[in-house]
């Protein structure tokens, strides 16, 4: 390994050690105290603080000159909390969805221009798909991706589309941004999205949004299966079911449709609402 690579890894390790010092929950710490605890030179610690401050991970108290954790660390912690809460909220609903449909059910979250499946239950059918938890797929050619894209704030959606390569994975993959936006509009109107032969020939899926307590879409819940079992009529049936599942998971995360819309919510028959 080159000297540059070793030095880089050492810097990352020291930055991580520095952040962990603040687990002591002290209000702020000065350069000298941080250097003492880390057994590093003051100049090294100052460089680390400068770099971390530029990324929002550390901030300086102008009154005392000491340093404390920045808002980005709080945001990262909230992201971890949401994912843990999401797993607990989604589990029973995914189990119910699989039982009702016999098909694979999964939960996905948006990460850049990709969807990451963070929870999944495999189909009980002999002919089924095999998609492991943690798999990443492009946002533009999956029903989950379309749902997540559809519910982004418009500035964020536009920014994502500008850097999104609409790479064709099959002859059916959407390659026109306007077509993709039209599908997103349709997904918002009817409450679910679909993708057929877009990521892989012979595979279809339907997906619906999952909201947090504030009503923000933080994930998608979807069903995937071979196309031979997901014709147009069946997709409409399953679209209604995943929309109900998305609402059920959202309720378990604290969201209430009554608090965000004047109309009465749909029935969630057969899906788990309470923890």
Largest sheet report: 6 strands, antiparallel
**Can you say what the CATH homologous superfamily of the largest domain is?**
GAF domain
Total domains: 2
The DSSP helix count reads: 9
Topology of this structure?
Elements: H1 3-21, H2 31-38, H3 42-54, E1 58-60, E2 67-69, H4 71-101, E3 104-111, E4 114-121, E5 136-138, H5 143-150, H6 154-163, H7 177-190, E6 193-196, E7 203-211, E8 217-226, H8 232-252, H9 257-260
Antiparallel strand pairs: 1-2, 3-4, 3-8, 4-5, 6-7, 7-8
Helix pairs in contact: 1-3, 2-3, 4-8, 5-7
Structure characterization notes:
The chain has two domains: 3-69, Winged helix-like DNA-binding domain superfamily/Winged helix DNA-binding domain (Arc Repressor Mutant, subunit A); 77-260, Beta-Lactamase (2-Layer Sandwich), CATH 3.30.450.40. The relative contact order is 0.11. The chain has 275 residues and is α+β, with helices and mostly antiparallel strands. Helix content is 47%, strand content 17%. It is built from nine helices and eight strands. The termini are far apart. It is elongated, with a radius of gyration of 23 Å. The strands form two sheets. It has a six-stranded antiparallel sheet with strand order 5-4-3-8-7-6, sandwiched between helices. A two-stranded antiparallel ribbon has the order 1-2.
């Amino acid at each position: 390994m080159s000297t540059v690579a070793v030095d880089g890894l050492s810097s990352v390790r020291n930055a991580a050690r520095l952040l962990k010092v603040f687990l002591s929950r002290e209000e702020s710490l000065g350069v000298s105290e941080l250097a003492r605890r880390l057994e590093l030179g003051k100049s090294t610690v100052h460089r680390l603080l400068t770099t971390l401050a530029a990324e929002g991970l550390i901030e300086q108290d102008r009154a005392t000159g000491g340093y404390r954790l920045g808002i980005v660390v709080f945001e990262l912690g909230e992201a971890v909390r949401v994912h843990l809460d999401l797993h607990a909220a989604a589990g029973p609903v995914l189990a119910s969805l699989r039982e009702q449909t016999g098909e694979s059910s999964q939960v996905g979250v948006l990460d850049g221009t990709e969807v990451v499946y963070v929870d999944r239950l495999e189909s009980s059918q002999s002919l089924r798909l095999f998609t492991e938890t943690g798999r990443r797929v492009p946002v533009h050619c999956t029903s989950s991706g379309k749902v997540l894209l559809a519910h982004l704030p418009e500035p964020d959606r536009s920014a994502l589309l500008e850097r999104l390569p609409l790479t064709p994975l099959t002859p059916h993959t959407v390659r026109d941004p306007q077509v993709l936006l039209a599908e997103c509009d349709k997904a918002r109107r009817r409450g679910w999205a679909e993708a057929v032969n877009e990521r892989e020939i012979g595979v279809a899926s339907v997906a619906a949004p999952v909201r947090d307590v504030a009503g923000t879409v933080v994930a998608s819940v979807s069903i995937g299966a071979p196309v031979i079992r997901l014709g147009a009529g069946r997709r409409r049936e399953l679209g209604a079911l995943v929309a109900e599942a998305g609402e059920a998971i959202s309720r378990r995360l604290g969201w209430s449709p009554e608090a965000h819309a004047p109309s009465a919510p749909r029935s969630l028959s057969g899906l788990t609402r309470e923890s």
